[in-house]
Amino acid sequence: MLVDIPVGRGAKISNTEKGKKLGNEFINIGAKLGIKTRCLITDGYSPVGNGIGPALEARDVLIALDYENYKNRNVEKNHGDFKIPYDLINKSLDMAANIFEMAYNKKGEYRKTAEEILKTKALKKMREIIEAQEGNPEIKAEDIVVGENFYDVQAEYTGKVKFISNWKISRIARASGAPYDKKAGIYLKISVGDFVRSNDSLFTIYSSSAHKLEHAIELAERLNPVEIGGAIIEKIE
């Protein structure tokens, strides 16, 4: 069993030491149950992927599984609401490599193995799973319907994105109706380190309910989940 333990500001586990303590508890429980367990302490400083909410996360997954095709189609230019979730892809590949290492019980170039599977087999297998669950196996990311009510949250000023709070983003997504409203949630347009200008889009809130969207907008304005900073850290006089 592989356990992902994100740590950092805005994550459920605030620091590495607490993450290690929790990881050791998982490993001890696994040992008592006869389950080989490994825990990965991962960067929880900002959300992984662009979508938060069932439909928006499903979009991310389909793009990730077919990212070479979407990259060749220049999806980010042609579909303003779509971004290739490279952070999700990289984290998934790293976790898959760890699972292979545990399964074979020896060191190896398993990241390359995971990359090859992603390029050649992963999307086909996902389509088989979708078909087995009586869904449309030919569905594409752009076919997934999201809430008809939406609001674009924009940057108030120019600067670099310093921090995106997982906790605050999650609260706003829940206020929009997610996960019970499968079409509701948040789609991030930026990542930590990006440079944005005043009025650039930071994220879009979606909901099937106009009332819940209004509540989510109010919460977003109050919580300010995306921190944008300039070059000055502190002033000393």
Structure explained in plain terms:
The structure is a single chain. The chain has about 240 residues and is an alpha+beta fold. Helices cover about 45% and strands about 20% of the residues. The chain has nine helices and nine strands. A four-stranded antiparallel β-sheet has the order 3-6-8-4.
CATH architect. name of the largest domain: 3-Layer(aba) Sandwich
What percentage of the residues does DSSP assign to strands (E)? Answer: 15-25%
Helix-residue proportion: 40-55%
- Overall geometry: globular
Helix/strand-derived category reads alpha+beta
Number of strands: 9
What does the secondary structure layout of this molecule look like, with pairings?
Layout: E1 2-7, H1 16-32, E2 38-43, E3 51-52, H2 54-65, H3 67-72, H4 75-78, H5 86-104, H6 110-120, H7 122-132, E4 149-154, E5 159-164, H8 166-175, E6 185-188, E7 195-196, E8 201-207, H9 210-223, E9 226-229
Parallel strand pairs: 1-2
Antiparallel strand pairs: 3-6, 4-8, 5-7, 5-9, 6-8
Name the features:
four-stranded antiparallel beta sheet, 237 residues, Aldehyde Oxidoreductase, domain 3, alpha+beta, globular, 2 domains, 18% strand
Quick overview:
With 237 residues, this protein is α+β, with helices and mostly antiparallel strands.
